[in-house]
Amino acid sequence: MKVKEVMSAELRGVRTDTSLKDTAEHMRLLDIGSLPVVSPENNRVVGMITDRDIVVRSVARGADVSTQNVGDVMSSPLVCCHEDDEVEEASTAMKAKRVRRVLVLNDKNQPVGLVSLGDLAQGPIDQAELTSVVRNVSTPAPAEAP
Length: 146
Prior knowledge:
Layout: E1 14-15, H1 20-30, E2 34-38, E3 45-50, H2 51-57, H3 70-73, E4 80-82, H4 87-97, E5 101-105, E6 111-116, H5 117-122, H6 127-138
Parallel strand pairs: 1-2, 4-5
Antiparallel strand pairs: 2-3, 5-6
Helix pairs in contact: 4-6
């Protein structure tokens, strides 16, 4: 099965210069936990911001989320796949990079959606492979220096 058959196609983004407070509010209203990050200079996706990025890289360090911007704490580089890739390729990328979401690109390398662990769970992926991906991305990474 192709990625385009299981991905979430409604894609919303946020600019690197958007405050973390505004980004968190946007996530709350949309009931989502991540957004692609777009550069205001060239309108290209340059990273992802997650609710976890905001908490771990800003709130936990005592930063002011009203003045700190998305570009300061976003995850980069991006982990991507193409909409015509097999679903297994997306799961392999998630496992290798230890991410829960992968940006989906079209044949012109333009973002067209996201594929998440939840999308994989609803697709035809082998249960053993799904378990392997979940275990891998859920294993704690080495702690960052304070």
